[in-house]
Inverse folding.
């Protein structure tokens, strides 16, 4: 067990602060893409870190703490979505995924909105794979570990999803 | 072709987590860690290994008691184990040569597996006949009220003794080979 993992497993608050600083932005973006709302992503991110603290022994045992944290976040997001579905609520399209969506430059704003809409047009599984690979910066192997699919399947679905996004972006650009 | 899309997407800046969220989440994490430290998880009161060992010891002790009880019952039913006159003669010879202590030891050893004489076999046979008669009567009493069929081939399964009875009889037959305590 390396030193940061050992500190996390022993419940060192400073180690959890370091983990937050390393992963929070990427996890939050991923959760917004899945849940559609930033406020929901805030709550689920908090639940994710509480669960990581509760199961901190596992953090010391896993080979890849980053993939493990994303897997925990994914489980929490799914639980959140199930509860929302039981209440009959629908999931909104996440439009403010990128910083450029709020800037004054019209072209950049439009590009950000197009990308967000193209992502939203994908199926939930493909959107998740593109999000994890492209914006969370995970390797195909890590993405496969998070979503529970083989590496080859993840890679082929990623390329197919990019094809669909290219079509959508081209159509919107006309 | 996909490179274009990747380049286009990578030119965008993903929005990060809100500023105030860090303090809120880390406070919640600290509370969770403090709660876990203050109230450690309850340990199992009866560890599985200890419980298994205790159950094993208990079963060994119960088996020993059951054997003792069974031996006592058999001794009560058949009386003390007969010692062969030949064994007594050999033990007497040993006592003369090596002393009374060695003679007693030899008698003990020889009487462990004393060969059954003709009288013993007759006694066992009579005992078996008595047991078979009792068991047959017992079966008739415990069966339902219907009478046995007149044709033996039809009702032979009903007349056949239960497996448990056979084991009891086998035990009686082989009882004389049982080593003494």
């Amino acid at each position: 067990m390396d030193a940061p993992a050992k500190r996390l497993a022993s419940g060192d608050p400073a180690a959890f602060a370091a983990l937050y600083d390393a992963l929070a932005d990427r996890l939050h973006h991923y959760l917004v893409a899945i849940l559609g709302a930033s406020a929901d992503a805030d709550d689920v991110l908090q639940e994710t870190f509480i669960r990581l603290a509760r199961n901190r022994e596992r953090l010391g045992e896993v080979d890849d703490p980053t993939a493990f944290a994303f897997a925990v976040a994914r489980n929490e997001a799914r639980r959140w979505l199930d509860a929302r579905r039981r209440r009959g609520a629908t999931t909104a399209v996440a439009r403010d995924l990128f910083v450029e969506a709020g800037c004054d430059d019209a072209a950049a704003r439009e590009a950000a909105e197009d990308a967000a809409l193209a992502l939203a047009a994908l199926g939930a599984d493909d959107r998740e794979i593109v999000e994890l690979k492209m914006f969370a910066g995970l390797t195909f192997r890590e993405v496969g570990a998070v979503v529970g699919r083989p590496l080859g399947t993840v890679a082929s679905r990623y390329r197919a999803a990019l094809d669909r996004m290219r079509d959508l972006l081209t159509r919107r650009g006309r | 072709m996909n490179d274009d899309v990747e380049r286009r997407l990578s030119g965008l800046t993903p929005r990060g987590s809100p500023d105030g969220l860090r303090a809120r989440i880390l406070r919640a994490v600290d509370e969770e860690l403090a709660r876990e430290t203050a109230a450690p998880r309850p340990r199992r009161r009866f560890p599985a290994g200890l419980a298994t060992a205790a159950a094993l010891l208990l079963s060994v002790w119960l088996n020993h008691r059951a054997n003792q009880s069974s031996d006592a019952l058999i001794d009560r039913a058949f009386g003390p184990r007969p010692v062969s006159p030949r064994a007594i003669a050999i033990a007497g010879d040993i006592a003369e040569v090596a002393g009374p202590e060695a003679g007693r030891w030899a008698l003990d050893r020889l009487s462990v597996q004393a060969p059954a004489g003709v009288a013993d076999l007759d006694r066992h046979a009579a005992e078996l006949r008595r047991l078979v008669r009792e068991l047959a009567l017992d079966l008739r009493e415990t069966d339902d009220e219907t009478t046995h069929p007149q044709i033996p081939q039809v009702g032979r399964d009903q007349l056949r003794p239960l497996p448990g009875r056979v084991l009891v009889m086998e035990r009686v037959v082989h009882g004389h080979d049982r080593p003494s305590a």
